Amino acid sequence: MKKFLTLTFVVAVLGLAACSNDKKTNEEIDSLNQASADSLLNAALADTTSVSDSLATDSLVVDSTVNK
């Protein structure tokens, strides 16, 4: 019984020691959120730019065939 209690105590202590106390501050969370928002915005702008360029090229091809 003593061995069981000792083992249980050791497991509990190791379990508590494994919990990290690295809580992020609000400033760190805000900076991470801002960085991911900027990344998403840049990706969206890049997608929009490439679609607009391809549409402009396609419309020029269509316009050139219509005038013939």
How would you describe what is shown here?
It is a single chain. The protein has 68 residues and is mainly α. The chain has two helices and no strands. The model has no long low-confidence stretch (mean pLDDT 76).
Distance between the termini: 97 Å
Shape: rod-shaped
The whole-angstrom Rg is 30 Å
Please tell me the overall pLDDT.
76
Beta-strand residue fraction: under 5%
Structural class, from helix and strand content?
A: mainly alpha
Q: Spans with pLDDT under 50 lasting ≥5 residues?
A: none
Task: Give the fraction of residues assigned to helices.
Answer: over 70%
Tally of strands: 0
Number of helices: 2
What's the order of the H and E elements? HH
Largest sheet: none
Quick overview:
This protein has 68 residues and is mainly alpha-helical.
Keywords:
single chain; 68 residues; mainly alpha; 85% helix
